[in-house]
Amino acid sequence: xKVIGLISxxxxxxxxxxxxxxxxxxxxxxxxxxxxxxxxxPRDLRARLVRLTHAGRVEELSQLNVYVGELFAxxxxxxxxxxxxxxxxxxxxxxxxxxxxxQPVPFKLGGIKIRSTLQIGEPSVIAERTGITxxxxxxxxxxxxxxxxxxxxxxxxxxxFHSPRIPRLVVNIGGISNxxxxxxxxxxxxxxxxxxxxxxxxxxxxxxxxxxxRKTMDRSGAMAxxxxxxxxxxxxxxxxxxxHRKPPKTTGREQFGxxxxxxxxxxxxxxGINQWDLLxxxxxxxxxxxxxxxxxxxxxxxxAEEVIVGGGGTRNxxxxxxxxxxxxxxxxxxxxxxxxDSRALEAMAFALFAYQGSQGxxxxxxxxxxxxxxxxxxxxxxxxxxx
Length: 387
What we know:
Layout: E1 2-8, E2 14-23, E3 30-40, H1 43-55, H2 58-82, E4 92-109, E5 112-120, H3 123-130, E6 134-136, H4 139-144, H5 154-161, E7 168-173, E8 176-182, E9 192-198, H6 201-210, H7 222-225, H8 231-237, H9 241-244, H10 253-256, H11 258-271, H12 275-298, E10 306-310, H13 317-326, E11 332-334, H14 345-358, H15 366-369, E12 379-381
Parallel strand pairs: 1-4, 4-6, 7-10, 10-11
Antiparallel strand pairs: 1-2, 2-3, 4-5, 6-12, 7-8, 8-9
Helix pairs in contact: 2-3, 6-11, 6-12, 8-12, 12-13
């Protein structure tokens, strides 16, 4: 079956779209990427989405839910056209949407323990515009089963990278970073996976803060490369409480978004740190937080012989250099070594989840999310040819 996966991550910079051909069932599923593309959001939308996560109005939330749904539908139509595949030859769309709020730590409301998450990008709009059955809202079912709703990509990491002989660490650096430890020759219930802290989010946020929004990212790590790591600030950042919290754990903009960006920028001013040194320091912090997670939580269970890195962070040579240094003698590869596109994995994961969910196959990883049991994630919005 040909399936389109769609996601916009915590960086809120656009829609990642992957068109994949998928066969098999469950952990025996096989994927072949046919096409990948990123379609940038309109500039004003990104600012509205960031504002919405901090102080949005109900009317704006309702409006943007539909607007983002329209943009996701256009992304699906566009990638199919660019791949020269008619829409009626595509079996499913798996849409993660755009996360607006993620609260994995339970709190009590009316005496009931609540975990919540909210992704916008109305799947009914996607199904109506494309005519293709759309599966969405994946995280909610895992959270209903007591999980944190993330990370979800370890399921795909296992399918793609599990080895009978080589223990591997798979790292994804998006807006937030996560890792998956795959012990050699062990089954899915034996993997360890969790969010490690910031990925590109803090780096991008500092760039935007220091350039008054003129730049949105440190392209190729060029700005960080001009600076030197400020040891005192780096040590302070490495004391962030999330880094010390035991898995399962997940995080997002609530902890490493605007509030932390402003806090770090103010601290840099107090310490007299220029923008180059500040960017060098937060880049080293992203790498250090990943390596620290490995040392604290993975090493007591087993040692990795390879580190495989994907996500947008792989396009930052400065960050990758810090990562290789932090892991010492363990070789660090990107997904490309395995003939995979580092940027495409998350979108491919949601194509896979849609495919498996439509077959009634469980597709979460309780050892990663903390859920009580395996569940089938995703809500199905029928297309014109359903079932």
